[in-house]
């Protein structure tokens, strides 16, 4: 555990976002390039596209309990050689998307009264090779899944697998850093990508592709003392390319018993390894050929996640209603808002099912370009709900 001592008398100046509101003690840091930094280590250089994504979601951690009035710091705050100029007021706590060496360094530099799990532990358990080994240990791994270390390993894995397949970088995120292949075939571009990763010293995670899949996630909090609590369970929406498109929560949604039991085992294992904080575990069900499968560990996210934020969004949704936080493509968002908008922000006092936007405090100026669909029905399909609407 990394301990940070306090120095409340240390004056701090200018935060990147200056809302003019009274200063709070929490500074959020939306370092959505979390996995990229863990992968690169000390040589990490911020990636432009991830910098843009992080800026888009700059205020989103205000969804979390206790952070509604937090100041919002851009990830640039972690890159400045003179961070004193990026503070004002009395920050006592950092709330990052994920714990990295730069986050810990920033807290140490300003002597904040705060503890973090060790970044090395965080890195190890976010590594997909770790979750693969845990799947094997708990006897819930998909058949034909394995770790491949070189070209020969990959060719053997593809030849042995009668299904389509996916090859993942250990620290890839949101459909990035992976390739998908057809049964028995490795196309040239996929082989080049894999060879490049092998040359960089990475081994990769090989898995059969599950068809007609239903993705979801289960979320826990692990206390520093080891106590584990279930935060909730939600459905995950992805497009055909595996890109995250939203999360759905229903009052009746409960994790299947195996998912709950395996998830608890995972959380206990993370606690034994020295991790504490929030953790989300992606799970799925679907078919390998004609065989139904349920996979209780797809990957482990020892950080904040959009599933966790979706659960927190429930405080702005009428009690006992279902809701979908939908992330349409930019084109779809612009078309929907042009034809059917503008949409009001969701609140606890909402009385009419329909389309809403996030509260302005967590999405100033609608920068996220997402929508919240609220209803009393379990099935909140954006396409079906849009069809009866007319401008």
Kindly describe this structure.
There is one protein chain. The protein is α+β, with helices and mostly antiparallel strands and 391 residues long. Among the domains are: 2-116, no CATH class; 143-208, ATP-grasp fold, A domain (Dna Ligase, domain 1, 2-Layer Sandwich); 317-391, no CATH class. Helix content is 27%, strand content 25%. The strands form 4 sheets. It has an 8-stranded antiparallel β-sheet. Strand 11 and strand 12 (244-249) form a beta hairpin. The longest helix has 16 residues, at 257-272. Mean pLDDT is 87; it is low at 1-23.
List descriptors.
single chain; 391 residues; alpha+beta; Dna Ligase, domain 1; eight-stranded antiparallel sheet; four-stranded antiparallel sheet; 11 helices; 27% helix; disordered N terminus
